[in-house]
Write a structure and sequence with these properties.
Blueprint lengths: L12 H13 L12 E6 L5 H12 L3 E6 H4 L3 E2 L12 E2 H11 L2 E5 L7 H5 L2 H9 L4 E3 L7 H14 L6 E6 L9 H12 L3 E5 L8 H4 L3 E2 L3 H5 L4 E5 L21 H4 L6 E3 L12 H4 L6 H23 L1
This protein binds phosphoric acid mono(formamide)ester.
The site of phosphoric acid mono(formamide)ester (CP) has 9 residues, from helix 2.
Length: about 325
Amino acid sequence: MKHFTSVNHIDDLDELLLLAKQIKSDPYAHKALGTNKTIGLLFFNPSLRTRLSTQKAAANLGMNCITLNLNTESWSLEFEDGAVMDGAKSEHIKEAAQVVAQYCDIIAIRSFPTLTDKEKDEAEYVINAFIKAVSIPVISLEGSSEHPLQAVADILTIQEYKTLQKPKVVLTWAPHPKALPHAVPNSFVKMMQKANVDFVITHPEGYELNPEITQNSTIVYNQDKAFENADFIYAKNWSNYNDYGAITSQDLSWMVTPEKMALTNQAKFMHCLPVRRNQIVSDAVLDGENSIVIPQANNRTYATQAILTKILQDEK
Ligand code: CP
């Protein structure tokens, strides 16, 4: 593994999950692997879990970790080739990326989508500008179209909590007051397509994700029907993909409530967090005994550590 910016970069999911489980049971086993190595975490957007779990994963591997909040602490970057830089942008990505790469052995980047320019977002223009400019590995800490580290933690959590060989996993859209990206559901869909699960997506009509990603995954527009016999409910909001970035529904009847969960096979409730209470999910579900959002967030460390371990091993 050279870069990790998409679920597509996982060759062998079973092998990766075995490694993550081994790391979870013995987090310092590969401490020598990262000695004298540095990872640079570059954030164009806020984060709690991704930032701290990646720092912890790097520390567990013996790595140095340097973090920069690019939008608030550094020069504003120009990404266009051939730009006449007579405006607000102070530095071109070509220099910035090469300079950062001299200080680091791995670069990890968070860069959310514009939600106004679909083509630019789907080209992952920020992360790919770094990949183009440097020769060291690049990891996505959530890009404009994928959040692959989250998806590894999600499948690790499902594996830990499943009671059936092939559980039914339902990805449900849920209401939210702001327009949100498609990165988390995109990576979750890709991951479920790789996993041994019975996978169903449910959302209001018109909220279809990119069909090139959902492919032949089952889509059920009736949320109650989709929830029947589910073993895992994974809630997430996303903005409209066809009417790109728009909010075309805030229908609170899609909120995950105890009544909805009663339709399931005592399903576990999952969400990547942060989550809006009593919009996406009611207090009673989030605080209930079947909510596994906190151990799901804990698995972010071991998922990331498994990816870093593979990259460091392959760089040796
Ligand atoms: N789930 C997730 O990526 O959380 P943060 O945005 O807090 O990093």
